[in-house]
Structure formats: C-alpha cells, structure tokens
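Self-study notes.
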Amino acid sequence: MTEPSGGSSKPRRPVVVPALALVLITAVGIAALLGGLNEVPDDPPRLGKGAVLDQGRYSTRFVESRVRVVPAASQFDEEKRFVELVFDVTNRGDDTTPVGMPPGKPEQAYLGTTFADSFVKITPTFPAEAGPFVFAVAKGGESRQLHPGVKTTVIVRYELEEGQRPPEKMTLDVAGFEFTAGFNDPSENWRMIATESGDRFVPEIKARVTLPVQGGAA
C-alpha cells in the first residue's frame, strides 16, 4: 500500500535564530529610530544677496557679485575683466587683522583666522593664475587690514580670460570663529570653529551663500 501524499508525518524542527543575530537586528532597529547609524549633518542655512552673517570675529554683509571691467591703463595695456565678490565686513575683535586669502585646500581651512580664511569653499573654481585677489577698500586706495569696529568693504576677485563667459552665480561655504583655547594650545584666541573627524578637523559651515553674478552668463 502506498502512503498518502502530503509530506512526512515527522514533526518539524523549530527554526533557531542565533542570539547574536537578534541583538544585531534590535540594535539596527533602535539606531534607525534614533536617526540612523551614520548621522548626516544638517545642510547649513542658505543665504543670498544682502544677508548678514554673524561669524563671531566678523559681522559680514554679502553685498553682491558682479562683473567688473577695468579699462586699459595705456595703449600698451589691455582691458581686464573680473568676477568680484563684494562684502561689508566689521572686525568685532580688539585687534587689527589682515584681510587674508581663501584657503588653498579646504582641509587646511581650519588653521585660518582671517576673514578670507572663512571661505572654506568657493564655487565655481577658477585656475590658479586667475586669483583670487583680495583687498579692502580704503580712502587712500587698497588696504590689506580690517580695523576693530570699522565697517570695511572687502573685494574678492577673479580675472576672466579673454572671451571667457562669467558664471551665472557664485556660491560660498562660510565658516565662523570663536574665542577659545586651541586643540593643543591652552591660550585663548580667535579660532575657526571646527570638529575633529578622524585624523583631521573639519570647519563648521555656518552658511552657504549664493550670489547671482550681475552681468554674468545668461
């Protein structure tokens, strides 16, 4: 006589889930509820033309970005065109500071203390020979200093090549400063706000500022 179809009559074994797997599943679930295993930092505030940003050591108004044409100084010279970023900056510290230069490499930005050091990233990028050229506007011409409590116009400019179209907009990732002791220096000074990440320090971006370029590409 053949056995009826439908499978074996033997009792089925219970499926055993290892305790470690249960722990991992639970941990992942809790992590997901708390915002994920790797927290993604919030996007910095987005600012535009005319906005004012408290950078700690400096108070900065983002005036505009524009194309500036400088006529030839003589018949032997040539007309030059620049993309300029224009700021009204007040040094809120007690000492005169240099205007400075934007950092050559973003990973080195945290070492800077000048106003222009706070531009951790400027987009789009330009060739090294195009600049940037940074100066303050003073009564006697150009200056490289920011005096305490004095609102000063600062220009950051890049030279355009002949026939080069200027960008439609310029975007800056801007850091801030705090008066505090250093990572390896107990004395208090103005330092860029940064957090440790592995073997390096990453500046905290206080704002991402986008300025349309007046006279820029259509």
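Second protein, same conventions, sequence then structure:
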Amino acid sequence: MELFQNFLQQTITLFAIMDPIGVSAIALSLLSPNITKTQIAIIAKKTTSTILIAFFVVLITGDLVLKLFGIHEDSLKVMGGIILLLMAITMVRGSVTVNKKENSDKNDEELAIIPIGIPIAFGTGLFTTIIIFKNQAASSVELFSLVISFCVNALVFYLVLKNSIYIKKYIGVTGQNIVTKLMGLIVGALAVQFIISGVVHLAKGYF
C-alpha cells in the first residue's frame, strides 16, 4: 500500500513538473504554424526519447555528481525546492516565454531535442526532483517504481504532444493556461515540502 502511495505521489509530482499541456503550448509556438500531423508525431517521438534518455542519465549519474561536489541530499532538497518554487511562481503567473528568434534558423525536427526536449520539458526542476526521489528510494523495488512512474509520464507526454494541435483547438490557449497554473500550484506545494524537509534535517545535523 505504501509503495503504491509513493508511486502515485511520484507520478503526480512528475506530471505537474513536466506539465505536458503547457509544454505542448510552448512547442506549438516554436514550431511552424503549418506543421502537419505526421511531423508533430515525429517531433513528439524525438522529444519523448530525449527526456527518457535524460532521465536515465540523471538516474545513473546523479549520485556521482553529488559525491563529486560533496553535496548533501538535504542541501539539494533546499536548493531544489527553491528552483521548483521559482518555477511554480512562473507557471502560476503564466509568464513562460521562449525566444523564438534564437530558434528561427532551425527546422522543426531539430527543435524537438533542443529546446523543447531540453530544457523546456526536462529542466533543472525535473533534474533535482529525480535525484531527490532516487535518494529517498529505500530499495530496488522503490527505485523501479520511480522508473515506471517516469515512463508513464513520458507516455502521457508523448500522447499530449502528438495531439497538441487538437488539444489547442478544443481547450484553447485559455484552457492551456489554466492547466499550467493548476500544475504550478502543485509544484509550489511540493517545493515548500522539499525546502522545509531539507532545512529541518540540516538543522538537526548542526544542533
């Protein structure tokens, strides 16, 4: 039961941070206005592959980075919480912007990896959260649960991005903004939990 609760929490958390509907709206603003269903499907596949590869790289090398720089897990929680809080404020304010001029010389398929895959879909907030969740895993079963949780979100991300043209048509820009703001509230609440937990544990170590 506890394993399922952790899986559910991780899945919802990762979904909120990834914000596939919000990312799909940004992606459409970067891509050609005349993009076809076939092209958007290819882009969705490439972007999803990118974030999956990034996830496994972080999962495997994340601990090495912490050890290399001597960073404590609780310090990462506090810093990660601050990053997520700033991200949440941006989501709630609806002020996510991307400089389209910088990417105007790239074709749509090139944009699938950078910047849509990294850093828009897979940014610093997701990076720190994955490392924190990995360090919280007490067994290989819980670690496997994290992998499944991310893969589920990657599948949802793929389906949303693939059908982003239809989603924009049915719920409109206003609907996409509302969803992003709601995801921002969840990310903000998670950020506060990370910060408080990290500060409490660090304080216990010093006093």
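Instructor comment on the second fold: The CA atoms of residues 18 and 121 lie 6 Å apart.
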